[in-house]
Amino acid sequence: MLGTFQKTHLRIELAASADTIGDSLLRPSQLRQWLWSQNFPDGLPEKLHSGLTFTSYIGPVAIQHQVDIVDSTSLRLILSQGIDGYHEWMWGDSWVQSRLEGISLLPLNLGQTFSLLSLRQFLAVKNAQ
Q1: pLDDT above 90 for 57
Q2: HEC per residue, 53-100
Q3: Domain membership of residue 85 as a residue range
Q4: Which CATH number goes with the domain that contains 92?
Q5: Burial, 13: exposed, middle or buried (Cβ in 10 Å; 0-12, 13-18, 19+)?
Q6: Could you tell me which of 45, 22, 89 has the C-alpha nearest to residue 54?
Q7: Using the 8-state DSSP alphabet, how is residue 40 labeled?
Q8: Which of 9, 20, 84, 105 suits a disulfide with 1, CB 3.0-4.6 Å?
């Protein structure tokens, strides 16, 4: 794999319950709404589950995701192709934490920051409704 080893770890506060945050991360129908910079395939299940493998795209760059661990407060994705590494999410009432490590030509820290800010905005709008 070409690229640089990158490691980034961010935690932010959100105005949402753990269940609402979890739904936003584990339900592809919601994931598509706030993570619009990635193209997800059609036919994903209603909720992510262990063992599921799918490929998303950031522009022309394919990223394969294998759902490794999923429960009520965490998600771990093993990544390959455009990013060789993993993405780990943990959450609770009013907070979410994201840890991303891998080798890639993509600027992972920038993408992770953008994703978390997009999630925060999505939940703020959802909470206001």
Answers
A1: yes
A2: EEEEEECCEEEEEEEEEEECCEEEEEEEECCEEEEEEEEECCEEEEEE
A3: 4-128
A4: 3.30.530.20
A5: exposed
A6: 45
A7: P
A8: 84
Dihedral pair phi/psi, residue 45, rounded to 5°: -65, 170
pTM: 0.94
Res 88 pLDDT > 90:
yes
Structural domains in the chain (count): 1
The residue assigned the tokens 């709404």 is 33
Tokens of 122: 């999505």
Radius of gyration of the chain (CA): 14
Q: How far is CA 79 from CA 31, 55, 103, in A?
A: 17, 9, 10
Write down the pLDDT at residue 128. Answer: 84
CA angle 94, 55, 126 (to 5 degrees): 30
The CA-atom distances, in angstroms, between 123 and each of 12, 25, 26, 56, 79 are: 12, 11, 14, 22, 25
The length of the chain is 129
